[in-house]
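Task: sequence design from structure.
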């Protein structure tokens, strides 16, 4: 899509499509405040994660926000990413229960992308996200990147953008993402994300 050809105003989407405004954010210097204690949360790297385990956790975290990208990948495509030596997958647990997922992508250094970051719904608002982000930033900056970046969108948790802004990320770009509704393609159940109507 060429942005110079976009007109102001509303653009109709055909049935079965979703649109989200994506905000890209970056951090070009490490945080000044040291990471806080993770409390009852533990974080560990998962080397060559099993695909079923990864997809189940990805779905548990992302279903309320219509995460679908990794669910549409073949086993070979997903394995090639997760097993890449420049991709780090981390698991957040709480008393042995899977609670969150972090993925750092170092394939395009000197930039590091936080490609996936989230916690399961029951741990939202309980310090899990903060513990994971503190760990994430420390892990990313130890590689001495030029910047750490990520993106979030209007389908994500309503507090996601302010969470990243409060952590010191700075917005630098917006985009519009249009995709087939994953509830209609069978990638997610039809009752996922009831706050977003199916058309």
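Answer:
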């Amino acid at each position: 899509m060429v942005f110079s050809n976009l007109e102001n105003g509303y653009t109709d989407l055909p049935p079965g499509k979703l649109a989200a405004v994506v905000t890209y954010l970056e951090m070009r210097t490490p945080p000044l405040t040291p990471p806080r204690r993770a409390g009852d949360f533990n974080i560990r790297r998962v080397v060559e994660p099993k695909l079923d385990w990864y997809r189940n956790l990805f779905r548990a975290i992302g279903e309320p926000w219509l995460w679908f990208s990794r669910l549409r990948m073949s086993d070979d495509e997903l394995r090639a990413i997760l097993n890449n030596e420049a991709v780090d997958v981390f698991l957040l647990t709480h008393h042995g229960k899977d609670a969150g997922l972090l993925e750092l992508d170092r394939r395009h250094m000197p930039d590091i992308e936080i490609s996936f970051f989230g916690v399961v719904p029951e741990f939202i608002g309980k310090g899990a996200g903060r513990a994971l982000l503190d760990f994430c930033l420390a892990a990313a900056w130890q590689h001495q990147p030029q910047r750490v970046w990520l993106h979030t969108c209007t389908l994500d948790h309503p507090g996601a953008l302010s969470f990243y802004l409060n952590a010191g990320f700075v917005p630098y770009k917006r985009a519009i993402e249009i995709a087939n509704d994953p509830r209609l393609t069978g990638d997610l159940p039809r009752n996922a994300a009831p706050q977003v109507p199916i058309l």
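The beta strands are 17-27, 41-45, 87-94, 97-105, 111-119, 147-153, 170-180.
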